[in-house]
Amino acid sequence: MVQANTASWKSWSSRDILSASWLYPLKGIYYFVTHPFLYPLLRARLIPCILLSVFVLTNLFLWTYLPQVALLAIFHGPLAWVNAAFLVLGEGAAIVALLFEAFFVDETMVDVFDATLINEGLSDLVAQGRILYPEEVDPVRQLGKPTTSAMYSPFSLRQLTEFICFIPLNLVPAVGTPVFLILTGYRAGPLQHWRYFKLLALTKKERQATIKRRQLSYTWFGTVALLLQLVPVLSMLFLFTTATGSALWVVRLEALRRESTADTTADAEYVDAPV
Question: I need a surface site. Which of 71, 148, 251, 253 has the fewest CB within 10 A?
Fold first, then answer.
C-alpha cells in the first residue's frame, strides 16, 4: 500500500513548482482532446450536461442579468455590462456544478482522474482504491469497482457559503471580479486533489499540512478551473478536462514524492565504511 511518510512528505512538498500549477487545467484540455479513450466517459454525460447548462444560463440571463446590470451601474458605470455577465456566469456555474457534479458526474470524474493516472504509469496508485483489469486494451476499460469510497471532490458547505458571501465583491469596480475569482479558487483548488489524498491514505492532519504548504499552487489551479467553469455551455466539458489536468499534476507530484522517498531510503541504508 502507498503510504505517506511524514518526513519525505515535507521534503517533496517544498519542491512543488508554484508558477506551473495554473497551467494544469489548460493541459487537461489538450490531454483530454488528444486521448480518445477518455471520450466514452464524456459521451454518456454530454447531452444532459449541455441541456442543463443551457437551461440554467438562459433563465439566469433572462431574469437576473438586467437587474444586476442596473445595480452594478451605480458603482461601475459602463463596466456594469461586463461585470454583470461575469456575475451571472459565476452564479450559473455554481448552480450547474452543484446540481450536476454532486448528483451526476462525480463518479465519472473519478474515472477520468484514475484513467489518466493509469495511462501515465501510476496503476499502482490507482490500485489502492479500486480493482483493476490490466489485461484490458485501454485505461478506461481497466477500471473496476472501487474498493474504498470513490469521491472526486466532496460537497463543501463552507465553500458554497463563502461563494455566496463573496458575490458582493463584484460590486467593487475593476478589482472586484478578479478578487472574487481568486478567493473562490483559494477554497476550490485543494478539493481537486481530494481523490489523490484518499489514494495516498493521508490522515486529516497530513492532508491539512499538505494543503497549507501548497496553498498558493492550489489557489492558482482553482482560479483557472473556475474561469473555465464560466464558459457558457462548455462548463461541463471543462469539469472533465480539469479532472484530467488535476491527474497530470499528480503525475508530477508523485514523481517528486517517489524520488524523495527513494533518496530518504538510500540515505537510511548508507553506512560509512570504517576507517
Answer: 148
Q: What is the spatial distance between Cα 9 and Cα 215, in angstroms, rounded to a whole number? A: 15
- Spatial CB neighbours of 47, under 8 Å, sequence gap ≥ 6: none
CA dihedral sign of residues 209, 213, 219, 221: negative
Least Cα distance to 116 among 259, 257, 252 occurs for 252
List the one residue out of 121, 147, 48, 101 whose CA is nearest residue 243. Answer: 101
Residue with the three cell numbers 487545467: 25
Classify 201 as helix, strand or coil: coil
Report the DSSP beta bridge partners of residue 132: 143
Query: 111-157 pLDDT, tens per residue?
Result: 999 999 999 999 999 999 999 999 998 999 999 999 888 888 876 66
Question: Rounded to whole angstroms, how far apart are CA atoms 80 and 74?
Answer: 8
Single out the residue of 88, 53, 92, 54 nearest to residue 68, CA to CA: 88
* Cα–Cα nearest to 2, from 265, 269, 261, 270: 261
Ramachandran angles phi, psi of 101, nearest 5°? -65, -40
Judge contact between 27 and 245, C-beta under 8 A.
yes
Judge whether residue 36 has pLDDT over 60. Answer: yes
Which amino acid, 208?
Q
Q: Are strands 143-146 and 130-132 parallel, antiparallel or unpaired?
A: antiparallel
Nearest to 24 by CA among 113, 92, 106: 113
**CA 247 to CA 236: how far, in whole Å?**
17
% of the chain residues with pLDDT over 90 = 38
Q: Taking each helix axis as running N to C, give the angle between helix 176-191 and helix 215-229, from 0 to 180 degrees, rounded to the nearest 10.
A: 110
